Hints:
With 448 residues, this protein is mainly α. It has one domain. Helix content is 81%, strand content 0%. Helix 7 runs antiparallel to helix 8. The mean pLDDT is 85.
Amino acid sequence: MSAMRDMTEGRPAALILKFSIPLLAGNILQQMYNVVDMLVVGNFVGNEALAAVGSTFILNFLLVSLFSGLGLGFSIVISQFYGAKDFARIKRSVDTSYVTAVVGAIPVTVLGLLLVQPLLSMMNTPSGVTRDMSASYLSILFIGTAGAFGYNLNAGILQGLGDSISTLVFLSIATVLNIALDLVFVAVLGWGVAGAAWATVIAQIISFVAGSVYLVRKLRLSSLKIRELEFDLPILREAVRIGLPSGFQNMLFSLGTMAIQRLINGYGPIFMAGFSISSKIDAFAFLPVASFSTAVTTYTGQNVGARRLDRVRSGFISTQLMSGALCLGVSLFIFAFARPLMSLFTRDVSVIGTGAGVLYRLMPCYVLLSILFITNSVLRGAGESAWPFFSSMVSFLFLRLPAAYALDYFFGKGEIGWCYGIGWIVGVTVAVAYYASGRWKRRIIGKI
Length: 448
C-alpha cells in the first residue's frame, strides 16, 4: 500500500506535482491508443482509413460518458473517505463500483452496437468506403466497452487513494501490447481499421484485468466474490450525485462535437483527415491540464475529507500556476511546429495545411482551458457538481458550437478553430466567479 499518497499533510505544490507526473505519463500512453491506430492506418492503409479512425472516436466516447462520470464520482468519494481515514467505507465503495459496472456495461454495449449506423448518419459521415470503415471500427470499440470502462474505473479508485504510479504501470503494459498488436493486425495481416480496433480492445481488457488483480490481491480492497461484495446504496447515490453531471456534461460535449464533426465532414476526406489529426495533437496538448486537474481533484477530495479547507485554497493557487505555465509552453511549441507535427501522421500537403491552420487558431487561447479545468476540478473535488457542469455547458453548447457555424458561414472553414477560445472565455468567467464566491463550501460531502 506504499503507493498510496496522503495529501492532507505537506506542501500542496510538491504533493500535487509529484502526483501529476505519473498521471501525465499515463495520459500520454492513453492517448497513444488512438494515435497509434491513426499512425498505422494512415501510413499502411490511406487517407480514408485515417478519416474513419479519427472521426469515430467521439462516438464511442458518447456512450461511455455516463460511466466515465460515475467513475469520477467514485474516485472523489473514495478520496474523501481516504482523507477521513475511513477504510471500511473505502472497501464498500470499491465493491459498489464493481457491482455498478457489471450491471451497466452490458446494456451500454448493446445500445452502442444498435446505434452505430444512426450515429454515423447524424454526423454526416460520407457513404462508401469511409463510412464502412467507420462502422467497422466503431462497432469493435463498442464490443470492448467493458474493458475501457473497467480500466477507467480502476484508475479512478487508485487515484482517489493517491496512487498514480500503479495505474501507470498497468497502462504501460497495455500500451506496448496495443502498439505491437496494431503492427501485427494492420501492417502484417492487413486487417485494416478492424485490426486497429481489435488491438485497442484487447489492450484495454488486459489492463482492466491486471488492475483488478492488483486491487484484490495486493491492496485487498475487494475479494470480488459475489457473496462477499458489500453493495452500499448511499455511497452509490453520492457517487451519482457528484459524477453524473460530469458524465452528462461529457455526453452533451460529445453531441456538440458531433455537430461540429458534421460540419467538418461536409468538406470531404481531406479536410476530415486534417481536422482529425489536429484534434489528436490538441489532445496531447491537453494532457498536462488533464493531469493537473485529476491531481487537484484528488488533493481537494482528501483535504475536504480531513476538513482541511485552508489547504484547498493553497492547492488551487499552486495548481493554477503550475498548470498554466506548462500549458503556455506546450501551446507555444505546437504553434511553432504545427506543420512538422502534422507531417508525422500524413505526407499529404493538403491535409497538413488544413490541420496546421486549425492549430494556429487554437493554441493562442489554450491557457484559458487550463484555468477552466483546474477551477472546475477543485469544485468537483469538494463535492460541487452543478456549477462545473453549468460553466462547461455555457462554454461549449452556448458559445463554441454556435461560433463554429458562424465562423464557417461568415469567414469560411479555415477560421473554425477560433470557436474554442470564444467558448473558454465565458466558461472561465463563470467558473472562477463561483469559486471566488465561496458558495461551493456548502456542498461538501456530508455523512453517508
